[in-house]
Amino acid sequence: MSMTGVDGEDRNDLTKEESRRIRQRSFALLRSLVKPVQKKVVLTAIVVVLSTALQVSGPALIGLGITVGLPALTDQNWMPLGIVVATYLVAAVLGSVSIAWYTILTAQLSQAMLLDLRKRVFVQTQRLSLEFHEKYTSGRIIARQTSDLDSIKELLGNGVNQLVQGGLYMLFIAVAMFIVDWVSGLVLLASLIPLAFLTRWFADRSEKLFRETRVASAKLIVHFVETMTGIRAVKAFRKEKRNEKEFAEHVEHYRDANSKVIQVFGLYDPGLMLIGNVTLGFVLLFGGMRVVNGELGIGLLLSALLYTRQFYGPMQEMAMFYNAYQAAAAALEKISGVLEERPTVPDPTGPIDLRQARGHVTFDGVTFAYNKDRVVLPSFDLDIPAGQTIALVGSTGAGKSTLAKLISRFYDPTEGAVLLDGVDLRKLHPKDLRRAIVMVTQEAYLFSGTVADNIALGKPDASREEIERAAKAVGAHEFIESLPNGYETDVNKRGGRVSAGQRQLLSFARAFIADPQVLILDEATASLDIPSERLVQDGLQTLLADRTAVIIAHRLSTVAIADRVLVMEHGRIVEDGAPADLIGGTGRFAQLHAAWRDSLV
Amino acid sequence: MSAAKATERKSELSTARAIARIYPYARAAMPRIGLGMLAALIGALVALFIPQVLRGLVDGPLSDGVLAAVWPAVALVLALGVLEAAMIALRRWFVLVPGTHVEARMRNDFYNKLQDLPVAFHDRWPSGQLLSRVVSDLGLIRRWLAFGVVLLVVNVVTIVIGFAFLLSINWMLGVLFMVCSTPLWIYGYLFEKKYSIVARRSQDQSGDLATSVEESVHGIRVLKAFGRGGHALKNFASQAEDLRGTEIEKARAIAGIWLWLLLVPDVTFALSLFGGAFLWLNGDITTGGLVAFFATATVLRWPVESIGFLLSMTFDTRTAVDRFFEVMDEVNTITDPEQPVSVTDPKGRLVFEDVHFRYQDSPARYPDLLDGIDLAIEPGETMALVGLTGSGKTTLTALATRLYDVTGGRILLDGVDIRDLSREELRTHIAMAFEDATLFSASVRDNVLLGRPDAGEDALAEALDIAQAKFVYDLPDGLDTRIGEEGLSLSGGQRQRLALARAVAARPEVLVLDDPLSALDVDTEALVEAALRKVLAATTALIVAHRPSTVMLADRVALLENGRVTAVGTHSELLATSEHYRFVISSLEDEQDDSRVEVNA
Predict the structure, then answer these.
(1) B241 to chain A: closest CA residue
(2) Where are the domains positioned within chain A?
């Protein structure tokens, strides 16, 4: 089986072939991100080379000034010193300006790439079908777009920057050392050997430890957030003491992991300094001997000493690059997997426009299976004339919700077609499809923003009058008015206190204002209290007069407003008729209805 | 965001005194921090002493050409270099451990305080706000203790001593250097102030962006149903672009400080070279003096650059300390009594006596949400609570376990005011199932046995049986399957059944169930009801009910209207006597159906 998309994200047993494919995939993604900005990349590279070279010139100029400038002064010749000082000033200005320029350029570059990537992942997330989301889980798709993107941001914004700048800096200092005094240059090169060993040790140790710290802190955060969001359950079931212990363990793990990281730093940092200072001693030794022998100017020895002192500065930050790289590479691999997923419910390539739908829905030989073993709808035909209100009845697993998801094109049929006014939903322009067909489900999700914003989601350009009319129509107006700021109340601020029923009323208002030709209600009244449901039903009766509607409700009250009842069992329609006829008969629906009537008294 | 702004007001104390509030946590760490400072100081002095050796070397053996005299000087430089590295290692070793311990202690205290604070506090504080305190703020305090305050003190002392050295080499050059470096102090400080504002904006914006991502994923069904993916993308893209703008602005600020950090020292060095040469020509300074001057200035470069950053870190730490204590200072209004009494032989008689309640942020123009509730539930009795959405049913249930405290009147359990019991004991007697079921990241077993961790397998199986939650046996790892945020995600109905099983498994004297069956389908609901009857026969229960079928579980029904219990009786009594009850609980279609049946007849 070839591995594509997000497969393999959880696997530790990838073959060499598969790992290579994943690496290639994420590299291709990186290339596609660089491509639009490659000219700027070249410019940035030129600027950073220039600025580093200018920065490094300082100590050499001081040495030159002392070695060449001072002796000339004794002859009253100010020229050499003047030239050195003037060069120094010019280099200082150009160097600092170019480094500033470089800083801005890299930010523009990395931000452009990040923005590009963010949008791509966001669009892809919205394009992918519900099937994907249900399997992949919300936590993971959110992590791709938050923490993973942060790792990439860290690498592009700081990691690469530090590596390039630090690497060039060290390279140029080494070159300058050789120019100033080749013996000192050799000493500096020799110091690279212990430096390499030390850095290797640090990179190895810190990579593992950093990962431990990240894991420990993630656990601590999850535990913390879970406690705070579930504080009612924590208190009601006296979990505080147990939590205290669990949290203290998380804190301890994090503390220990963190201590180890600091410990490694605590050795690496002085280690660098030790190497630097010992190198300094040797530079001084060889240089001093040669000054005494008249082979080296004192000023140049000073240059060599200043360079040695500066050489190791960028090392610590560069050593961190590896960590940033590791984290970002892992993130990029996962993101490229998500981007590679093909939506199972794709947008049509040559969409058919349907400006004004009538609402005639047809199932034409539809088969649907979530997978081979679970056929939910075996060969299904159904014709819903425009304007008809249908109540869908049946036990859990009979296929009612699947039917609803097929009409609203959350899923596509495995075989056959669902048609709106004779047009296959798969060929319909998404805009027309969504304008014509709207589904309201039991989970009434509210977005942050005001109550009015949430209703207006159904019709973004809605006026306040329209919003209030919609709220009144579904009986939500009163409770909205009683909120602290009425329609302008931020739904998150009162989070816990907008009840499930109230949320559902708002999502009804949202559907009401969207004014679709086909409305699908999947258990959309489950959390409403009876008076609210009554109001909603009154509203619906008016709304649905000239519209097509499919209503799924386990409370048969809905049947009252239906023109036609379909009873489903095991993916098939077993009864189909007007409510009164079915109630009067002896079939499944008559039994259900009788049982339900009993439950009311 | 406004919550964040409101909390970032500074306390009235001076910075030093505000930070000093962490003394109780830091006390144990003080000696080691002091020793760390001492080590750092010695290291800095050693670094400053090396140029003095160079000075002697250049003016002595190197000028005189005495090779033998070079050796001791080099040996001294080497020894000083090793000593400096050792002191750095020592500083890190001293401050490492105490810093992480202080952080861990503060973290645990913070968490425990939050668990203790009442639900009303958590209603006001979003978990994100608390999270940033427990993670970033405490991290900052640790870094300041282990690093910020140590380096601030040491660097200031180093600068003072370094300047003394510079002045001793040549007072004119020293003054020149000092004057030239003052812009860095000032600019560095101003930069940090400005930068921290942009940085905070960037933090806020990435927080908002993350919220958008989360909502676009959690609300994906709504976005798909209404075809609002494009709308969401537009919002997201504009937020992402804002963030990019801020990030580039941040980069510009950094570019600005880089410019000055490089320009000012280089210009100072160039001017010093010129001035030094002039002095040298007049014989006011030796070559060795010049060498020592530049070497010392190089050593001082970093301490001078760092002061602005360290000061701003100190101010940020003060804010972090303020934010920490803002929560720690919060007075807990729901506490255990000083001398808790105990219900020795709990029967489960629950009495509400003239209970009043209003939310703190409720506008004054509204009356109390609960406005004088009188209700007695006898041992073993099941009482249904019926009322319109927003009538305070859920609030009333929350009062019984003291998630909130009454604002007037009292609640008695077996004759004892619940405020005279310890919260631990109260919540052992009364267990709750919430409408939106909170599950924790733990196994199914741990989640169900939350209220009684020591219960056996039998009790667990029985509870799962009653709640019709046998689906858990089919999960990948059965009862050990991890669920919750970090584990397998369950449907609303499944979560609700587990929450019910949790309440049942706690085997309390009093069960409080908030609409526990709302997310279940008809068949499951019927099964749960049948099983629940057995439990309710022996347990006192208060059940919030929206549906006649739930009401049927109860012996009596209390009708909640305008904050009062206006009627108590059996279902049929209330149907017969209370018009409001009929309005709340009986469906419209009854009447409609009746009329229709009549017509049909």
Answers:
(1) A115
(2) 1-8+16-181+324-346, 363-600
